Amino acid sequence: MLSIVTGTLNRVECVKNLIQNTVESNKKLELVLVDGGSSDGTVEYLKALDHPRVKLIEEGKRSYYWDYMNKGIINSSHEWVCQWNDDILIENDWEEVFNEILKDPKDFYLFSWREPGGNYVIYDSNSELVMNYGIYNKKVFREVGMYNSSYKYYCCDGDMSFRAREFGHSYKNLYNIKCSPVPDPNGKKALWENNPLEMKNYFDTLNLYRNKILPSNIEFLK
User: Could you read off the pLDDT of 57-85 as tens digits, one per residue?
Assistant: First the structure.
């Protein structure tokens, strides 16, 4: 069983596509959605749907990536957690993902994803490891912590996956598992925020991880 965790805000059409691509396509999946105060009918749609494997958490206000991911992880039901976005669709059958875990057990896995230009990429180097989409075993969150509250959006995924690797957790690149962003048909875009100070903090923190030091603001999964 696998819990897919993400946040959403005023993108009900994306949520409908997401549900079809996840819990409606495989009974081993749970979808944990943290809503940031949607006013476009997202919450009403989810409540009316009343899907047994869709868990809605009403945040009531817009929050940041680290916040809704951590809330989603805490409220997820299964030991495997999939880091996701509300506008991402997997191109493979989810059974292919389960087969990868069964045949080669690791602590976390990275999926290939399509950039706007059309190329599929996985970021993986000695300096940085970015898990835009993929799966963690919850033991990672218990041992090295969850998403870092120092960041708003851009750096949270890279910080988490780099930290897991630097503290000795095994991982695998699943180049054959591909996912793609699907634009909201209503034209609503995700709200990103970033700044140079945050980027500096990101690379400074990666150096802490290389020296096996955890920042004091890391929250651990119980």
Answer: 999 898 899 999 999 999 999 999 999 99
Please give the domain boundaries of the chain with CATH numbers for all domains: 2-210 (3.90.550.10)
Per residue in 91-139, pLDDT tens? 999 999 999 999 999 999 999 988 777 788 887 776 778 888 999 999 9
DSSP 168-207: T--EEEEEEEEEEE---TT---------HHHHHHHHHHHH
Distance CA 11, CA 147 (A): 23
User: Helix or strand or coil: residue 134?
Assistant: strand
For residue 222, give Cα distances in angstroms to 2, 3, 59, 139, 160.
Answer: 18, 17, 21, 10, 17
pTM higher than the cut 0.85: yes
Q: Is 133 exposed, middle or buried (0-12, 13-18, 19+ CB in 10 A)?
A: buried
Residue appearing with tokens 């609503």: 188
3-state secondary structure of 79: coil
